[in-house]
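Below is a filled-in request sheet from our internal design queue. Each sheet records the structural input a requester submitted and the sequence that came back. We keep these sheets so that new team members can see what a complete request looks like end to end.

REQUESTER: design group, bay 2
PRIORITY: normal
MODE: inverse folding
CHAIN LENGTH: 387
BACKBONE (tokenized):
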């Protein structure tokens, strides 16, 4: 990670600090900053820093802290348009809008303290420093259920009480866009000969080549079915690293969603499905608990919608949940093993074992179970939805 340089002079920071402290007059006493990791952020983010210090209001000294997120315009001008799926100004724009205001009590986004325009075209988005929340690095099932319930509250709010936004800078087909990026992996994974490797034969005794090819071919029909559902505001990048569980000002559980770069229009169930699929793919949940977790998250999500007054047929929401989980993650759970096994340098294999902390056979065995589960789940959901 390259440390990014941003101006931390008093001219830039004073209005930000006054908004943080809710003081009309406060003079900065000290400033310090540290770079933060940002592996899961968008391609437009070039830096993430925690900036903190103290300020004097004429009577007493106050500690303050903020997250400075730096985004930069793309080199390709074709991508510098609101219609581009990964539009670099989307997150600053959503914070400048009112879309993240007055959200259901259980669901929140960080407060914004303003935006600084830099002379080189970059923008600094000044955000609330949420901290780590109250969960450990590894979530338990109750944590996933809480997040699903709060996502359901947001969905219920939009289904019943809010107008669907039509801002041109919101994404419109993010699920399709994310899936399309798997094309190279799918090309190889749907070839039966690709699975003729000892590591793959051991983990995948029944190669999923044909099932992967079928799902890839049928994806447009799945998108069409999802897009027939009522639209809601959707985060589109919901995974554990983008969520912080904390207590609100009243001591009640709250889920805070970070990183709104992909936000746009979607269907109820998509975000929860994305969270579930990512948890499986990334070893956050054992594959043996996949069915239990999926069912519990769906129940929690529907309960969250019900808390907002929603009463309707849950079948389309289950379909969107399972479809999003599969389309966003099954091409990776099947495609990654093929790419790793056929890498003649052995680099991918060594890096995979190092990253996940277990032998490659165990990694492949987990992904094989995930692949089979997600494919079964989306098949069952499609049959239920079409009946």
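RETURNED SEQUENCE:
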């Amino acid at each position: 990670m390259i440390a990014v340089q941003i101006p931390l002079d008093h001219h830039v920071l004073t209005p930000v600090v006054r908004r943080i402290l809710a003081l009309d007059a406060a003079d900065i006493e000290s400033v310090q900053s540290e770079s933060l990791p940002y592996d899961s952020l968008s391609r437009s983010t070039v830096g993430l820093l925690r900036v903190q210090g103290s300020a004097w209001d004429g009577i007493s000294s106050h500690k303050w802290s903020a997250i400075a997120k730096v985004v930069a315009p793309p080199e390709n001008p074709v991508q510098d348009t609101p219609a581009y799926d990964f539009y670099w100004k989307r997150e600053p724009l959503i914070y400048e809008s009112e879309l993240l205001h007055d959200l259901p009590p259980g669901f929140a986004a960080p407060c914004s303290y303003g935006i600084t325009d830099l002379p080189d075209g970059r923008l600094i988005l000044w955000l609330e420093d949420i901290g780590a929340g109250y969960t450990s690095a590894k979530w338990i099932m109750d944590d996933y259920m809480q997040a699903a319930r709060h996502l359901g509250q947001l969905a219920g709010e939009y289904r019943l009480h809010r107008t669907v936004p039509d801002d041109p800078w919101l994404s419109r087909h993010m699920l399709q866009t994310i899936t399309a990026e798997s094309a190279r992996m799918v090309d190889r994974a749907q070839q039966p000969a690709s699975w003729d490797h000892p590591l793959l034969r051991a983990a995948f005794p029944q190669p999923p080549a044909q099932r992967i090819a079928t799902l890839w071919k049928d994806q447009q029909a799945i998108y069409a079915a999802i897009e027939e559902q009522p639209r809601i505001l959707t985060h589109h990048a919901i995974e554990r690293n983008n969520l912080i569980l904390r207590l609100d000002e009243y001591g009640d559980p709250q889920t805070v969603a970070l990183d709104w770069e992909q936000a746009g229009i979607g269907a109820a169930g998509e975000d929860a499905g994305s969270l579930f699929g990512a948890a499986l793919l990334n070893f956050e949940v054992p594959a043996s608990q996949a069915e239990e977790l999926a069912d519990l998250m769906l129940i929690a999500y529907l309960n969250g919608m019900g808390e907002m007054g929603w009463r309707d047929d849950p079948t389309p929401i289950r379909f969107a949940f399972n479809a999003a989980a599969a389309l966003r993650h099954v091409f990776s759970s099947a495609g990654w093993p093929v790419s790793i096994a056929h890498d003649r340098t052995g680099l991918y294999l060594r890096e995979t074992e190092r990253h996940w902390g277990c032998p490659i056979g165990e990694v492949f065995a987990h992904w094989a179970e995930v692949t089979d589960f997600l494919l079964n789940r989306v098949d069952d959901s499609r049959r239920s939805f079409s009946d």
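SHEET NOTES:
- The longest strand covers residues 45-56.
- Residues 315-341 form the longest helix (27 residues).
FILED BY: M.R.
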